[in-house]
Amino acid sequence: MEKKKIHKSVLLQEVIRLLDPKPGQVYIDATVGFGGHTEAILKKIGPYGKLLGLDQDIGALNWSGANLQARYSNLTLEKANFSEVGKIAQEKGFMKANGILADIGVSSIQLDEPERGFSFKNTGPLDMRMDQSREVTAADILARYSEQQLADILSRYGEERLSKTIAAKIVQRRKKNPFKETVQLAELVRDIYHAKSIKIGKIHPATKVFQALRIEVNDELGHLEKFLPQAVDLLVTKGRLAVITFHSLEDRIVKDFFQQEAKGCICPPEFPTCKCNHKKRLKIVTRKPIVASSEEILENPRARSAKLRVVIKL
Ligand SMILES: C[S@@+](CC[C@H](N)C(=O)[O-])C[C@H]1O[C@@H](n2cnc3c(N)ncnc32)[C@H](O)[C@@H]1O
Question: Pick from 85, 58, 105, 115: which is nearest to 227 by CA?
Fold first, then answer.
């Protein structure tokens, strides 16, 4: 219990300033995690507001429930993937939200628990499921995917320049020795970098490979793409949506979606008249993403890659 308190919420002040929750308002926190942002919003909306909190990780949700529910009777928690936010909001009576937050990615706690298999820093099973009721683990992917599929995910989700070499080595190695533990994979990647005499900096060479596998195991980009339009539908006019991402693939999805929805017609320029009937639905609040201050990064290095984007529903 005690160790779970070390997750530090990123960009907390900025999120609250830009969402600007007010007494009596209705909020959805799509990624409760360890409840830091949730509680800050609950304090602002007060006892007459209400908040629906989702997380696909039952451990995180149970911890936040134990910590928050006794103090906030206006908090409803539900274990769910945010790709289902529309359905859950309807079931729970949260169809008109003043604000929605998604602080995507892994929590420090998930990263620090060796048994979850997110990190190569400790020996643990190659699991990486945020929702442990899902079937496929990272070990399953390493055992079953073809060399081409592995190279594709390493390149697309990890932007790993040695994707083909690493995929070939994984397939060769798994014949004799199936991948079960995080360190086995981390060592294989490090050995490939050494063999090619590539200088290794501060960041472990397996970082991108682990990121790619995690994205694939949890279908992170697919869920984000499903979440964004549903979140906009749930907002009232002038309602606000804030999304924090931790890598460029997610940030691009959020940025492109916000830009598209902040435009009217999206027909190709050569069309003489509009055929798409696309309506402008959003106003962008953050032209450039908000990033953490150097003080915050010093205190919480995870904040280094965080990017916050906020929009208002028209
Ligand atoms: C960075 S943490 C959130 C931390 C939280 N804002 C806080 O202040 O403690 C991200 C959380 O999002 C959850 N998560 C990631 N993707 C999700 C998804 N598609 N649906 C629901 N929860 C998700 C993870 O399980 C994790 O607990």
Answer: 85
